[in-house]
Amino acid sequence: xxxxxxxxxxxxxxxxxxxxxxxxxxxxxxxxxxxxxxxxxxxxxxxxxxxxxxxxxxxxxxxxxxxxxxxxxxxxxxxxxxxxxxxxxxxxxxxxxxxxxxxxxxxxxxxxxxxxxxxxxxxxxxxxxxxxxxxxxxxxxxxxxxxxxxxxxxxxxxxxxxxxxxxxx
Length: 169
Prior knowledge:
Layout: H1 15-80, H2 92-123, H3 126-143, H4 157-160
Helix pairs in contact: 1-2, 1-3
């Protein structure tokens, strides 16, 4: 097995190599955190957009249903004042009223679907989770302190260097 930089695990590496490896891994961690935040934000925005579109459609249906209510009211007044359908069928006013009620039912159903999407988008705390994770990582790194080196004679420095293996390999 070998480390990401190609050196065999357990081989002696210099401080510079260790710092370079740590920097590379921290950079990868930050990039992954940013990618996760983008993905979660995109999901929340998509849910919010779908909810907005469904509410807009429900509003459009309701607005276009208002003339039907006006016609139903007009024909209802006409029927109430003595105008009747001569063939014994339903009055036209009731037909317009039932049409209006069907449109209102569809608008209410779409409004409820939009409300569900809005609640899901509001519950989504994707970027907040990533921000908390980044703060936790920064807190851990902020509290990290280098270990003090033991005082050794100048000629014995090479003997005290230990091989550092990656824990993930």
